[in-house]
Amino acid sequence: MDAFQTFIDMGSYGSYVWPSYGLTVVIMAWLVMSTLRRLRNREQELARRQGEFPARRNRGGATDTSGPNTSEDAASS
Amino acid sequence: MAFDYFANPARFLRLANAVLPWCVGATVILLASGLYLGLFVAPADYQQGESVRIMYVHVPAAWMAMFVYTNIAIASVLSLIWRHPLADLAASASAPIGAAFTFLALVTGSLWGKPMWGTWWVWDARLTSVLILFFLYLGHMALTHAFDNPARGAKAAAVLALVGFVNVPIIKFSVDWWNTLHQPASVFRAGGPTIHPDMLWPLIAMALGYTLFYITLLLLRIKSDLIGARLRTLDSLRQDAA
């Protein structure tokens, strides 16, 4: 038996060792992908919305809700 | 206090964006060296043979299961008592990660138990209390999303997290308090580790790698939850304007 075969065989415990490592990789990869997918979706959504309200980015911390929102709506539509 | 300082979401995002590349780099290096040491350098066990290599994925997963739950409990205290604005986000972002690590601990433990104990599962104190931990995570995730008002969901989940925290010391000491097939602690024990350094180092590398992996995902998830909150605000602004 060559070295690679010995390594895969894991002293006859290969059928327990490799599924353990394999499942760990799959679950951790799934965590990474689902986290990144959600972040990307929300970033795209935010960019899209900010496109609808172009003036908002430059408005600083203004909290006035009476005038600006309606005028922005009118300006962008 | 640092807790208050980073309560400001913009400040938190600046810090998160600054540390994220370092967290990713450290996670990759630690996991790669842990896997290399665990699979190629560490010796086989004199009793368990090569099956002992399951330890390098199983034990850190079990540690993370308890560590993440402890973090959720701490975040729950910060949320319920001090109403820290990021605490609820940290708790809800942690729960799925903790549940995944608990699931890994249970399944890899089962895969280790079959060749070593002759059984996939036994209803003893250690295995049963970890299964309960898994259900606590699922309950936390379900409660968080069970209400139309996110704040009420977060509060209910925080109460569950604190009540369920009693399970964490039970898991830790279950192997000392009751008879079990599971072996006792060989790293975090009074009197120091009894495990050989050749096996301890890969274990430490993997455990630190898992921890940084968790921190990386936690920061990314809080970041996307903050964007989610921003989107909800934009929605309500638009409704007000209409």
| Radius of gyration of chain A (Å) | 27 Å
So what's the oligomer here? Answer: heterodimer
Kindly, what is the distance between the CA atoms of the first and last residues of chain B, rounded to a whole number of angstroms? 41 Å
Main structural class of chain B? mainly alpha
Largest sheet of chain B: none
Order of helices and strands of chain A: HHH
Evaluate the radius of gyration of chain B: 20 Å
- Structural class of chain A comes to mainly alpha
Task: Tell me the β content of chain A.
Answer: under 5%
* Largest sheet data of chain A: none
Largest interface chains and counts:
A-B, 30 and 36 residues
Low-confidence stretches of chain B: none
Average pLDDT of chain B: 90
The end-to-end span of chain A amounts to 73 Å
Helix content of chain B: over 70%
Structure commentary:
- The complex is a heterodimer of chains A (about 80) and B (about 240).
- Chain A is built from three helices and no strands.
- Chain A has about 80 residues and is an all-alpha fold.
- The N and C termini of chain A lie far apart (about 75 Å).
- In chain A, about 10% of the residues are buried.
- The C terminus of chain A is likely disordered.
- By secondary structure, chain B is mainly alpha-helical.
- Chain B has one domain.
- Chain B has eight helices and no strands.
- Chain B is globular.
- The termini of chain B are far apart.
- The model of chain B has no long low-confidence stretch (mean pLDDT about 90).
- Chains A and B meet through helix 2 and helix 3 of A and helix 3, helix 4 and helix 8 of B.
